Amino acid sequence: MKSIKLRAMAKINLSLDVVGERPDGYHDLRMVMQSVRLCDQISVSPTRAPGVRMKSNLHCLPLGGSNLAVKAAELIMEECGIRSGVFIDLEKNIPVAAGLAGGSSDAAAVLVAMNLLFELGLSEEKLRELGVRLGADVPFCIMRGTALAEGIGEILTPLPALPDCSILLAKPDIHVSTKDVFGALKLSEKTVHPDTDGQVEAVREGDLAGTARLCGNVLESVTEVRYPVIGAIKQTMKARGALAAMMSGSGPTVFGIFEEKSRAEEAADALRKGSDASYVCVTRPYHSRSSHSGTAG
Questions:
Q1: For residue 211, what is the domain's CATH number?
Q2: Active-site positions?
């Protein structure tokens, strides 16, 4: 029986601005989002028995109905009337609850894999419409690459590829609740908003230094105050040559943008030798926005 194997890419927020609250409890956002090459590996295979079964190399990961990858498979089954079952094999490399959209990217990969596996012929636009029902980051994780994201994150405008560089990821050993961070955010006239339009223009011009200079995340005003270790990681990166160092999403992962891989590796070594970060990884931007390329086996 054939299977579809895909990579589920992590993402970072080059900028994250909250521009207002919505009646439904969500927030209106403007973000520049970037896929990176750190990825999970997902294999989806058909089974004769109905339903969704799943296994993972990460033993603490819930594998039932609360897992977004399982929810994605069930959503496609319900929408498209698929009666046979599937087996999902997830090799987890993206740290969980890190602000890197690991769960959302897994769900996105499963949506794409189910489309290929059962030859459903769903467009990317349709997959993104389904994806937003699972989570605000899922549509971007289906598209991948570089994009301006608006609304709750589902309104996407593709942007040119970020110039090649090294991206250092460092996650402290803390848990951050996205719901709590947004709930504690108080927008006022004193709120410092990132220059998203300026950053979009820098990305379009291929200006890496300008893109880095205009990085900003309004959620740092909540998370970094609560967890000073985030600021300490940023300082370590900047002291070793990062063009920018900023928290991704609601945290707690911090990313640094480096022109030279050697400088990124130096900063990574410093963080590994210290006690601020429990996970450290040097990666690169993921440039392709083409549809997921799967292998069938």
A1: 3.30.70.890
A2: 11, 137
